Amino acid sequence: MNRRRKLFLGALAALAVVAAASFLRARSADLAAWPAPAPVVSHERPAHEGPLLDAAACRALAERLPDPATAPVDAYRRFQTDGAAALSEADNAAIAARYGKEGGAMDAWSRALAPDGFRNGFSVATPADAAAAADLLGRGGEMTVLDALEIASGYVAGERVRRFAASAEGTVRVFTRGAGLVGFAAALPAATLLSREALMSSCDPGPFDPECAALAVERLRAAEDAIAPLSDAIRDDWRVHRAAAREFYAAMEPGATNGPSAATKWFVRRLGGTEETTLAHVDALFSRLVANAALPYSPSGLAAGLPGWCLGKGRPPWTRDPAGAALARNYLRHAGAAAAIPSSIRLELRAARIALALRLWRDAHGGEWPASLDPLLGVESPLLLPGDVADPFSPGGAPLRYEREPDGSGWRLWSVGLDQVDGNGAVDAFLAEGADVKSSDFVFSSRERQHRAAPAP
Q1: Dihedral (C-alpha) 190, 195, 200, 203: value to the nearest 10 degrees?
Q2: Alpha carbon distance 95, 146 (integer Å)
Q3: How close are the terminal C-alpha atoms of the chain, in Å?
Q4: Alpha-carbon distance 363 to 357, whole Å?
């Protein structure tokens, strides 16, 4: 028994020596693990005048909106492909309830996105502000669905596309301002839904008002112009993370309540964590992210040129700054794909503009789709501008790819996608699974509504 105990204690001592040596090696490596700050990049963002959605305004508006639910979204998917006949009495009753008494919820949402509403977006400076904004944006998906349902069921095709375009412009303008990457993440599905609805409406049979379509093209172009710089969104998050670091160390002070646990305080202090060190690391990291966000889209995304741990390869440098490492790892876990969001929104808005122009051209030319996009850019009476057909994912600014179906009854339009490699539109990233999403193209079609009705892979 004595011998076993000695062997056990010896093994524990050996493990302790190995662990200590590993920790010391990690601590030495972590001296240079944080990226150097980008030159001449400030965390200050441009000031916006006019009404803003501060934390109080976010909470007040959220109280007027229903909690997120899936039933209206599921009902809307049926409506998209099969029309109003696909909705049961229960569907209609549930949707009516979501609008609020006499349309109160929808009215409040529409006023917030209107030209005289919160057009300059959110005012987010602290973690509490960010939480209030995220709660409101979490309701935005369903409110966009309800908005689209109201438009789709209440207007004829020409007026419908104009209203979809106007909603897209208001949504993009508000969502991409002030709420950081959370706002951009909410803007993408909303802009996609409204843009795709405009695209599908332009391809539906029946009368189509050319004046409304022309106005819709202008509003969709205005929506693209309304996308705030992604670098400003990173600056918004930078400001919030600086505030979070300060709050963390304030809660570390003796006598502070509702702060970190005693074990966390002991751990951070023993590793030498300080507010000054954490702020310096946060500043260095976010300055690099801001600089990357200002560059054209590339598959490497926001983390280009950053250390491997920023890309999820290896552990963060917690042995020198546990608080900063936790903040950075949590943020970088979600920020990797953010570089593609502005280009994705632009692509959706451009595809809708092209679909509208194609419909106007077809109606003016005996019901035949053009063989290329060139006629839409004609010198005498252009339906589109060169920027409307540029592929936002193409590294050289090449135009989006277009082809008319062999029998002339429809068309396909596609972008080179996230990998910036043209796959001839063979696989649509929206229908691909797993790793194929990144290597597929983004494809649009005059038969979009039929494709949505088909079962998903």
Answers
A1: 170
A2: 8
A3: 62
A4: 10
Q: What is the dihedral of CA 424, 426, 430, 433, to 10 degrees?
A: -130
Q: What's the DSSP call for residue 191?
A: H
Contact status, residue 446 vs residue 367, Cβ threshold 8 Å? no
Digit-coded pLDDT (tens) for 257-289: 777 888 888 888 888 889 999 999 999 999 999
Token pair recorded at residue 134? 């995220």
Six token digits for residue 35 = 């990226």
**Interval 73-103: pLDDT, tens:** 777 777 777 776 677 888 888 787 777 765 6
SS3 state of residue 402: strand
Query: What is the C-alpha radius of gyration for the chain, rounded to an integer number of angstroms?
Result: 26
Whose structure tokens read 């400001």?
A: 239
Average pLDDT, the chain: 87
Q: What are phi and psi of 26, to 5 degrees?
A: -65, -40
pTM exceeding the 0.85 threshold for the entire prediction: yes
Burial class of residue 42 (count of CB atoms within 10 Å of its CB; 0-12, 13-18, 19+): exposed
SS3 content of the chain, % helix, strand, coil (to 5): 60, 5, 35
Which amino acid is present at 266? W
Q: Give residue 354's pLDDT band: very low, low, confident or very high (50, 70, 90).
A: very high
Distance of alpha carbon 47 from the chain centroid: 22
Sheet harboring 411-415: ordered strands across? Answer: 401-404, 411-415, 442-445
Which segments within 151-277 are labelled E, that is strand?
none
Cα 432 to Cα 44, 144, 425, distances in angstroms: 40, 25, 12
